[in-house]
Write a structure and sequence with these properties.
This protein is mostly helical. 91% of the residues lie in helices and 0% in strands. It has helices spanning 3-26, 29-56.
Length: 57
Amino acid sequence: MSGEEKAQAKGEQGKGKVKEAAGRLVGNESLTAEGRAEQAKGDAREAKEKVKDVFKD
C-alpha cells in the first residue's frame, strides 16, 4: 500500500470517527451519518490498496 494512500485512508477514518462522535454528542443524526460514511470511504480506500498490493506481489 502506498504511504500516501494509506495516510489518506487513515485520515478519512479518523475524521469520520470524530464527526460521528460529535454528531452523537449534540444529537445531530445527519452529522453522525456523515461520519459513518466518511469512515466507510476510508475503509474502502484501504481495502482497495490492500487488493492492489496482493496482485502486485
